[in-house]
Each structure stands twice: as structure tokens, then as C-alpha cells.
């Protein structure tokens, strides 16, 4: 009993320390000047087999169809298509995902790569380890270098990485458009509330 309690307490301390580390080391938020960012990009977030398999077939088919069509349309007009994928690397996250989701999203998982239903070739790929895509400095640098100030957002999961990235973009002064039919959610009721909050903060919806 004492051993179990000790392990539980050790786990809690580890999680608290990890959370504090992330808090202290998160990227500094620097607001952009929209007038200096006339360009647009399409984001396709976490559309990896390990994650898309959790959504129903009808929703996936509709989302993939729209994202593929939108990606080709944007690229024809010179708009960058940026693909972002998530990989769990923290020890506690990998243990949790192995215990609860068969290792989905963990390094080495056969389903870590993009879902085969994506038919386009992205202009740029970034790998993140946190929900917010802005946790990747190279992603923010790319947007800066290409003078991108408007983001069309698609992908999954609506109430996690989509929401976090949208909030990260709004906090930095980006204009964002949520491509609603191209966003997958496991909880539509929750997404409706989160989407409304994003709209109140200045997001647009398509």
C-alpha cells in the first residue's frame, strides 16, 4: 500500500514538474503587424492515421474531400499549404498513450504518418509535441519569412490542437478562418462552445 501511494505521489510530482517546465519554457508571444503580413496559408493539423481513425467514416470522408480540394485550390493561387503533425515524446505522455490508446501518436507508431486519404503534397511540414502549433519556433519563423498573416485552419482534434493553435494565432494578431467542414471533432457539442468563443475573439468561419 505504501509503495502504491509512493508511486502515485511520485507521478503527481513528475506531472507538476513537467507542467511547470512547459510553462516556463513556452515561446514568448510576439504580436505581428497585419499590414506587413499580406499572405495566406492553409493549415492541415494532425491528420494522421493514429488520430483520424477515432472519427466516424462519414465525417472523415467529408473532411478529407474538402481539405484535398481546398489544398489544391489554394496551391493553384500561390497560397502555401502547411501540414502539421503531432508526435508524443514526453515519457509520461508516451506511457499514457500506450496504456490508453495502444501507443497512438507515439514515436515509432505505424500510424504516426499522414492519413493516406490526403492526396496533396504540402509545401511545408512541421512536427509538434504540444497542442499549439506555435510551440514550434520553425513554424512561426516560416510564417514570418513568408509574410503570412491569415491562416485557414483545418484538421483535428477540434477541442484540442485546433483550438490551441487557433488561440495561439489570435493571441499573436493573426487573422484566422476556421474551415468548419474540414475540422474533425469527437465532441461536437463541446466544439460548438469552443468555436463560439473563438468567434468572439475575432475568428471567422467558412
From TrEMBL:
Pfam families, sorted: Isochorismatase
Record-level Gene Ontology MF annotations: hydrolase activity
Name this protein carries in UniProt: Nicotinamidase-related amidase
InterPro entries: Isochorismatase-like_dom, Isochorismatase-like_hydrls, Isochorismatase-like_sf
Originating organism: Cohaesibacter gelatinilyticus
Domain Isochorismatase-like: 40-203
CDD domains attached to this UniProt entry: cysteine_hydrolases
Keywords assigned by UniProt, alphabetized: Hydrolase
Amino acid at each position: 500500500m505504501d509503495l502504491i501511494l509512493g508511486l502515485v505521489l511520485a507521478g503527481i510530482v513528475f506531472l507538476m514538474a513537467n507542467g511547470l517546465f512547459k510553462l516556463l519554457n513556452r515561446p514568448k508571444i510576439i504580436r505581428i503587424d497585419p499590414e506587413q503580413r499580406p499572405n495566406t496559408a492553409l493549415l492541415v493539423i494532425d491528420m494522421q492515421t493514429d488520430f483520424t481513425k477515432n472519427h466516424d467514416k462519414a465525417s472523415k470522408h467529408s473532411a478529407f474531400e474538402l481539405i484535398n480540394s481546398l489544398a489544391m485550390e489554394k496551391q493553384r493561387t500561390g497560397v502555401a499549404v502547411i501540414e502539421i503533425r503531432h508526435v508524443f515524446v514526453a515519457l509520461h505522455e508516451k506511457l499514457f498513450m500506450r496504456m490508453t490508446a495502444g501507443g497512438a501518436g507515439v514515436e515509432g507508431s505505424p500510424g504516426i504518418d499522414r492519413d493516406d486519404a490526403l492526396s496533396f503534397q504540402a509545401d511545408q511540414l512541421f512536427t509538434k509535441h504540444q497542442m499549439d502549433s506555435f510551440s514550434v519556433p520553425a513554424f512561426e519563423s516560416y510564417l514570418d519569412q513568408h509574410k503570412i498573416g491569415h491562416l485557414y485552419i483545418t484538421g483535428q482534434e477540434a477541442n484540442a490542437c485546433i483550438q490551441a493553435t487557433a488561440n495561439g494565432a489570435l493571441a499573436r494578431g493573426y487573422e484566422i478562418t476556421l474551415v468548419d467542414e474540414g475540422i474533425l471533432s469527437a465532441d461536437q457539442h463541446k466544439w460548438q462552445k469552443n468555436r463560439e468563443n473563438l468567434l468572439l475573439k475575432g475568428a471567422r468561419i467558412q
